[in-house]
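Quick start: what a row looks like.
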Amino acid sequence: MKLNILSEQNSVLNTFLAEIRDRQIQQDPMRFRRNLERIGEIMAYEISKTMHYTPRTVETPLGEAVVQQIDDKLVIATILRAGLPFHQGFLNYFDRSQNAFVSAYRKNHKDGSFTVKVEYISCGELEGKTLLLVDPMLATGQSLALAYEAMCERCGTPAELHVAAVIASEQGVDYVKDHLPKEATLWAAAVDEELTSKFYIVPGLGDAGDLAFGEKM
């Protein structure tokens, strides 16, 4: 699996990444959501460079122009709920894409371990398509890998897979490399070194879902 870390290059993405990490700026949930969306837009642009294109003729008011247009049949998928603003950023650019949603949650056990339960999937046919599986936080990687497996079982196997995260842990990166197709590509704005005992990424940014939509029970 190829890994692309976008913050390793200087760009405006790093401004948005700094703001979603900043505990003071995080107090504005609208700005937090918008920054997730903007990072999604930048990632969509970068991923678009790797897709397949065909030249097509477009008629203008004054003549004709030949332009390169994407051939890939795209599906953008996310895990509820934290993924929604990030997903919207991708949809802003790939606005004709099919969309898929997965409801999954961690079930914690007394010994400190957990299992991931996938409850609901809304997804169309994936065979022969390019799947963009987007989730802002790639912590252990288990939820994402199980979501991909569940979608494939129900909807078929995509021709190509791109995984996108705003912040990933090194452990999560290693996990998805071992449990997702080797031909897949992983995109992250940043990769952090540490996971806490409760599986939060450090330094990370906290709980993306709570920051975007308010605390949950």
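That is the whole record. Residues 19 and 123 are 32 Å apart (CA to CA). The domain at 2-48+74-213 is CATH 3.40.50.2020 (Rossmann fold).
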